[in-house]
Every structure is written in structure tokens, then in C-alpha cells.
Amino acid sequence: MLNLKKSNSNLNNTEKGRLAEDLAIDYLIKSNYQILEANWRHKKAEIDVIAQVDNTIVFVEVKSRSNDYFGKPETAVTEKKKKLIIAGATSYMEAKGYDGQIRFDIVSLVLRSKEDYDLEHYKDAFFPGL
Question: Is 37 left (phi over 0), alpha (psi -120 to 50) or beta?
């Protein structure tokens, strides 16, 4: 279990990523999302959070930074990363036999500490190519 008593500056990058994902999951649960999976992997693709809200499966990429001096965290979701997420989502849906509605979201955190952060949720942040 991640020791959340440390200040953000004392956390390594893996711990910061876990903290950001934990905060994102807490936010999603409070927003009435059902968490289906966390850190779901298939080949090179990893999806941070797979959730369901209403009749939609939502594939969530969580991005965080300690500050936004060099841009907001969500700007780090590159076209290459989007393609990997979409490939992972396709594999997930095939594995589960799911053919319903889907959406790709980004949860962005400027994470100064566990108690001091800004969270933005971008619904329908990107779309798979046709």
C-alpha cells in the first residue's frame, strides 16, 4: 500500500503516479462511476482506469504533474498514447464480449500534495479513428 503521509516531493515517480490514479479513482467513484479495472494491460497498451457510468464503458487516462509551468498534464497524451489506449480498449472489449457505448476520458491532476491538487476531468477527450 502506498504511504500517503509523505509529501509529494518525497515520492518517487511511481508513487506519484499511484497517488494520482488513487485520487482519480476516488473522484470517479464520488461521481457515480463504477470502477471495473485499474491498470489494465494488454501487450504494450495500458489503460489506467476502466469504469462504467450509465450504459457507457469509459477508458480513462490519468495524467499528473507537480506543477503546470511547462503545460497542463493532459497535453502529455500524445497521438501515439491515444492509439495505444484505443488498441487496449479494443482488446478489452473483445475479451469481455462488449459491443456497447464507449468513451475515452482524461483525468488531469496538478499534484502538489495528497491534500493540495487540481483535478480536471475531460469527458470524450478523444475519439478512435474510423
Answer: beta
